[in-house]
Amino acid sequence: MANSGGICSCLSSAVLFGLSALLIALSIICHVIALATDYWLTSDDEDQNNFLNLGLFKACFDNYYHKYDVPYKLYNGCHNLESQYYSSMKEWLLPGWLFSARVLAVISLILLIVGTIIFILLALIWCCRTACCSDDVGKGEKCLSYAGPIVFIVTGMLIMVVCMIFGDNARKLQCKNFWVEGHLGYSWGFEVASCIFAYIAGLFLIRLVVLKARENWKSSEY
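Given the sequence above, the corresponding structure tokens read:
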């Protein structure tokens, strides 16, 4: 019976490990796609279609004329929000809420990378202990075991804040006295997916750490 319980525990750990790895990979992929694409906000105004789409780092226009420009200038194509091309429109193209969302998104990417490194280190430690038939748990492993879930849960929360900030403020793109109706695009959807995957990965890692602790406790009894 004891062996049967140990086998079930090992299988549960293996399944949780695989699911955690998959969710972490999906979270990173979705977050990178969200940052790399410019369809967080897209135009749905058929009559006024010179605004095309907006991302965290770029904005796209088609023959858009900014009424306060001197001299007259038409804006076409996609350009970085901080580029000289948009220098006269930077005040409304890069408001405080968008800058905050961008900073939090970059921090989230860094945390995802850190969390992935922690997860890989834990995987290597667990594999080495299994191969060497060792039950000793070092302080480093304990620290990594506690840090991993926390990093991914915090990352999920940060990404959720990014989604909320952008979703709440980007319903309309304001240009002083001119408004362009828009709707949230697929880039924002990828960010929402990244948030969900990161948060669930953190929860799975908590369960995985608990199972590993139980395995170590049981093996120390025999």
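Confidence is low (pLDDT under 50) at residues 1-9. Try to locate this feature in the token string yourself.
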